[in-house]
Amino acid sequence: MFGFIGAGNMVSALVKGAHANGFLTGENCLITDKSGISGPALAKSVAGRYLVSNLEVAKQSDVLVLGVKPQHILAVLAELRSVLETHQPLVISLAAGVKLEDIQMTAGSDVPVLRMMPNVNAAVQASMTAIVPGQNCTDEHIELALKFARTFGEAMQIQESELPIFTALAGCSPAWIFDLIDAFAMAGVKYGISKANASRIVTQAFLGSATLVREATETGTKSTANLIDQVCSPGGTTIAGLLAMQAAGSRHSAVEAVDAAVMQDMILGKK
């Protein structure tokens, strides 16, 4: 039985993705939330059950997913501690910046806990998700968490020390990519194409390019540099545009964005 505390946008995306893939059904999905508005609607959409109490959800869950805000998660765990210590479900935290050590200490020393970091693309079952298992997690817990995460995209297991850079590359980058798509679309508008058509053109170019990179990476046949060379004809328009982008600092800007996100993650983690 999967239980979800919180029913915001991220939890909604995860639940709907897992349901669409047949991983979650009405029989194995419990949901509760503080507002009493989003939770019932989400439960109804997947034929799950809505319960009004965090404690009741925790008591009935084998896997408990905490989708509350980071500043509230430890208080929720403290409220549930006695149930968690008795029942010992796998506790999955979606809270950014709240370390395993603090989650473990609050949930109970023997409770299996795990951090999971999906991204906004879970809404279209295309998330890049990381899991970080705690010391009490078994191989079965890890496999179950990965299986769950793969219902709404790709997933990998990493070390907690790698989460800041993972968050930058997977969690923050969609916003940067959206901005880049919008910038290219605006350039299209400059030359007379409607914003809607320009956005459609650029979005498909990004989607196709990402697919080529993924296939080349998985097969090991080409690097991104090889793909760039494949598109850039000598003396052509592509190499002219690429060199202009690089001269304007495109690569440096990408590294600076990652640096800033990692630094901010570290600052937030100290608060």
Automatic annotation (TrEMBL):
Gene Ontology CC annotations of this record: cytoplasm
Residues that bind NADP(+): 5-10
Subcellular location: Cytoplasm
Annotated GO MF terms: pyrroline-5-carboxylate reductase activity
Reactions the enzyme catalyzes: L-proline + NAD(+) = (S)-1-pyrroline-5-carboxylate + NADH + 2 H(+); L-proline + NADP(+) = (S)-1-pyrroline-5-carboxylate + NADPH + 2 H(+)
One annotated GO biological process: L-proline biosynthetic process
Domain (Pyrroline-5-carboxylate reductase catalytic N-terminal) ranges: 2-97
Domain of life: Bacteria
Keywords: Amino-acid biosynthesis, Cytoplasm, NADP, Oxidoreductase, Proline biosynthesis
Pathway membership: Amino-acid biosynthesis; L-proline biosynthesis; L-proline from L-glutamate 5-semialdehyde: step 1/1
Residue span(s) of domain Pyrroline-5-carboxylate reductase dimerisation: 160-263
Described purpose of this protein according to its UniProt entry: Catalyzes the reduction of 1-pyrroline-5-carboxylate (PCA) to L-proline.
Family affiliation: Belongs to the pyrroline-5-carboxylate reductase family.
The protein's name in its UniProt record: Pyrroline-5-carboxylate reductase
Name of the gene encoding the protein in the UniProt record: proC
